[in-house]
Amino acid sequence: MQVKETTAEGLKRVIEVVVPASDLEARLQTRLHEAKDQARIKGFRPGKVPVAHLRKMYGRSMMAEIVNQILNDTPRTVIADRNERSAMRPEIEMTEDEGEAEKVLSGKEDFRFKISYEMLPTIELKDTAGIKVERPVVEIPDDEVEEQVKRIAENARSFEPVEEAAKDGDRVTIDFVGKIAGEAFDGGSAADQALVLGSKSFIPGFEDQLVGATAGEERAVTVSFPEDYGAENLAGKEAVFDVTVKAVARPVEQELDDEVAKKLGIESLERLRTVVREQIESQYGMATRQKVKRQLLDALDKDYDFDLPEKLVQAEFDNIWAQVTRELEQAGKSFEDEETTEEKAREEYMTLARRRVRLGLVLSEMGEKAGVQISDEEMQRALFEQIRRFPGQEQQIYEFYQKNPEALASLRAPLYEEKVVDWLLTKIDVTDKTVTKEELMKEDEEPVALAS
User: Which part of the chain is the PPIase FKBP-type domain (predicted)?
Assistant: First the structure.
């Protein structure tokens, strides 16, 4: 096999490979002799089939298998021998001329093809000891915990029937049928639906129009679905609901005590407070993590500048752009609504794609040098978590990931990224800073995650 580099521009490489016809013939002869001892062909005793007969019957298909094997194995071997790493799957270019292809398969001509790829750049890691970040921390006051406990306790509140007009806080039991332009629509009807007035669990304006209703009363409730409503066939449309109020119940006064906690499945009020505090801490903790990670990535972004594999950047941009345009479409908005233009948005998201690829490569190199690993157990947890998102399709989703290494790699990437960040946070200067919850929860302009 002859291997020759024909292009070396930046990170781009094109390698020309020539497999002599004599090499192809030698491989074919090996296969034919292996098949000779196993072939079962009518008219011949086992192991006595002439090689010439086997070649006549199966030579072309065997040669096609040999060619495919060469195409599968050679790129990986060639790139490894050059001590290079391909950023994406190498592209193969070979003749499309049927005549030439037939000569190769018949063993009369050398097999020529080209391997095109972009190398991963060589990254010289810099010392991270000088990086400093502030970890924003929120002190959770007892009154915030107590407010959340009271809100949760509302779920355990009892109601008793009343023969009075419904008011905010009361629970009404209703039947309803929703219509648009006089026609009932799917999902717009229900029977014996319990609704606490003022809970804002229905379309804006629906609950307000039931205040003052009494048991047995029928009302026509007119509302408009929000413009960003999830169901596109209903978004922004006016609907009339024919509502029958079947019962009105008023909340019973309750003391915040152990009995309330037990109704919620928790052994005591004190334990309920502890659980609520832990939930709030977890919520704030995730936000803290994102803020710290953003500062760390910003610091790394300033430290590194190197050539990027353009196809890797383009693939990242395509992922970002698909998400952006999908979200705009779902919201029924345009770039002009976001006070920008498509051209400007493309420039901004291409810059973001370059940042993500650059930081992704830096973190990958750091992780490799630090020996960061993702265990099989961690991958299994990530896979099962993904499968849980598709109830009823678990087996199909599992098989999809098992058969698609690239899809499985997409689950591994964010796990690896977070473990490298964890390792980095032990190597840099991190100081705590007390902030308000409003400061902590303020969203960054761009998403932090590198993985797509």
Answer: 169-251
Q: Which residues are within 8 A (CB) of 334 and not within 5 positions of it... i.e. 6 or more apart?
A: 328
Surface-to-core class of residue 312, CB atoms within 10 Å of its CB (0-12 exposed, 13-18 middle, 19+ buried) = buried
CA 165 to CA 188: how far, in whole Å? 25
Domain residue extents for the chain = 2-118, 158-253, 267-441
CA 351 to CA 445: how far, in whole Å?
14
Pure H helices in 82-141: 98-105
Task: At 351, list the tokens.
Answer: 């810059």
Residues counted in the chain? 452
- This prediction's pTM: 0.72
CATH code that applies to domain 267-441: 1.10.3120.10
Residue-wise pLDDT for 272-282, tens only, equals 999 999 999 99
Q: What is the pLDDT of residue 452?
A: 34
Could you tell me the fold of the domain covering 158-253?
Answer: Chitinase A; domain 3 (3.10.50)
What residues have CB less than 8 Å from 161, skipping those under 6 apart?
Answer: 247, 248, 249
Q: DSSP per residue over 268-283, as a string?
A: -HHHHHHHHHHHHHHH
Residue among 54, 86, 93 nearest 71 (CA): 93
The amino acid sitting at 92 is I
